[in-house]
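Shift notes (night). Ran cinnamyl-alcohol dehydrogenase while the centrifuge was going.
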Amino acid sequence: MGHHVTVISSSDKKKVEALEHLGADEYLPYLSLLKLDGKLILTGVINTPLQFVSPMIMLGRKAITGSFIGSMKETEEMLNFCKEKNLSSMIEVVKMDYVNTAMERLEKNDVRYRFVVDVAGSKLDL
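Came back to this:
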């Protein structure tokens, strides 16, 4: 859409993928971007521990907190925008019988970038 895209992550592990495969213009580690008294608000579940150098947090009086994101109305607006602009995300669709394996892969950070569980397409014993 002609925008300058910057990927922000916690480490350099995804840098090559972001720049070369996803087409990002820049890649930055997140904590260094917070100004004095800045706040990092996590909006997604992370299964691995966050790692950071504590003086970076303490000396900058930075805070790390979490929040669930958006209302149903905001989610609907975002999905409509993505549809209008023909935007998609990288997902892996899995059936219910694969959920345990999917959870193991999440723990190993072996997902690019989200799992979507196909409940309707799964064979469920009711």
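Residues 37-88 form one domain. Helices lie at 15-21, 54-59, 72-84, 99-107.
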